[in-house]
């Protein structure tokens, strides 16, 4: 089991798409078992961040995230949740909260069925609540000793409630999207792992209304138990609410222990 005990975040992220590929790699070789094996695997990851302010702004901003993964035979499940909170100038508020669950079933060697659901609240992008569910296949492109690649596509039903103080975009609250992703995982050596994942999510009835999410992350073994990590994420929405930028990005640094 892997437990990351300490992390820090810079800057505050407006990206709220979970990268389950990084979770697969970080939380053990859950997809390394071959068909017919009855092994069981569990993994967990806990990150935290804290910022303190003084002078013109007094207070703290802190965030936390929890990721869980488990496998039994052909069944593979993920759960991730996170939140950013602030207590600035005497006011406490939730800035961002997020929960994502994903289930994989291995249909045959190299092909899986995926089912996922997500809840999100994000003041950075004026989203009071976004709910979505999706289902579709996942395919292995190749799986060498050090390099893996997968591609997937899914139907996704999405419902969004925006904040009262923004101008809504010209899209209905409930939309039907395609959600596709391409991911690569490279074991550079026994100490360094790189993962790249890109999602593309256009509307079925209006393909010009689309979202794009991309993340590049690296894990670095400092010692046998001490691990460091870094990720660069970008999110693009072609039709954001009024007053919200189309593009967000974040850089995340982590330091932790694997037990």
SSE topology:
Elements: E1 7-9, H1 20-26, E2 40-53, E3 59-72, E4 75-88, E5 91-108, E6 111-122, E7 127-143, E8 147-162, E9 174-189, E10 192-202, E11 210-221, E12 226-237, E13 247-257
Antiparallel strand pairs: 1-13, 2-3, 3-4, 4-5, 5-6, 6-7, 7-8, 8-9, 9-10, 10-11, 11-12, 12-13
Structural notes for this entry:
There is one protein chain. This protein has one helix and 13 strands; from the N terminus they run E-H-E-E-E-E-E-E-E-E-E-E-E-E. It has one domain: monomeric porin ompg (Porin), CATH 2.40.160. It has one helix at residues 20-26; strands at 7-9, 40-53, 59-72, 75-88, 91-108, 111-122, 127-143, 147-162, 174-189, 192-202, 210-221, 226-237, 247-257. The termini are close together. By secondary structure, it is mostly beta strands. The longest helix has 7 residues, at 20-26. Mean pLDDT is 79; it is low at 1-16 and 26-40.
